[in-house]
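hiii, so i know i said id send this last week but things got crazy w the move. better late than never?? heres the sequnce for the chain we talked about at the cafe, plus the structure i predicted for it. fair warning i was half asleep when i ran it
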Amino acid sequence: MIMTFRWYGEGDPIPLRHIRQIPVVKGIVSALYDVPVGEIWPLERMATLQRRILDEGLALSVIESIPVHEDIKLGRPTRDRYIDAYRQSVRNMGALGIPILCYNFMPVFDWMRTDLSMELPDGSTALSYDHEAIEAIDIKDGIPDLPGWATAYSAEELRSLLDAYAGVGTEDLWRNLNYFLRAVVPVAEESGVRMGIHPDDPPWPVFGLPRIITDDAALARLTEIVDSPSNGISFCTGSLGPNAGIDLIKSLGRFVRKGRVPFVHARNIRRTGERAFHETAHCSESGDVDIYRIIRELADAGFDGAIRPDHGRMIWDERGRPGYGLYDRALGAMYLAGLWEAVGRSSK
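okay and structure toks below
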């Protein structure tokens, strides 16, 4: 198992020299954040990013992520042009030996929260989600101060996209994902890149838009589209965790044993309602996800991919990108590594 850490490039307030001081972290999860969606990621730009990370004694282990253009998700006639660009970006990853690509297929919005600084009883703050608050928003007026792709669009562009998705149902989205994977996965396999789709976060429709990667059945359907180790899952315990109907341990073990989990996001959440939750410290006792059992299942199933501590709380008066501070994620990395060592030693 390779312990990794998300880094947002030179604009990240957390420098690589601080990340390398977390004893267990060997790899970096990063991306080219200024390449317009749909364009090829230049080989030279990725090589520069890779060298920058190598210079700090770390490896560029995961690209998270090359965004999928909305025309692909919508199945528009222009999608082939964007798919061709996506395939070339994957080839460029392979040429540099970058082994894992995390991506998602969520329409319009990426992960969504309604509060970026919910105060917890200990005084730390965490990300939270309340579906009732989402339903109270008139989306066509724009969505200020909420994370996700809304920030990438003007109000006019957002309205246009929402109109385009008005006639798109879950099966339409599945067909478009099928088309995308059948075109891209063979290139990924040839290039030595393992693709892992990130589950929808949260795992239910948001603003009436379909979401399809939400449960165990969806993960199984996804892996059957193309039977290849390059068609896998970035298994996120914090994204699937709010769905109380999924057995996280059983699902994780099933797909790891099939060789379909190249990457894991490990974090904990506390469910506070049917479609409401907040994030917590990583340790099992803090939330509804048994992180000890997650790590034990990874070890038992022979997991050999990358893992990272996901969204952290803001603690010790740290200021920065919500969910992506240094301190709590560093604690999370050490906690996950400690569990991994303990499980490994006890099994021997």
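btw The domain at 2-347 is CATH 3.20.20.150 (TIM Barrel). thought thatd interest u
miss u guys!!
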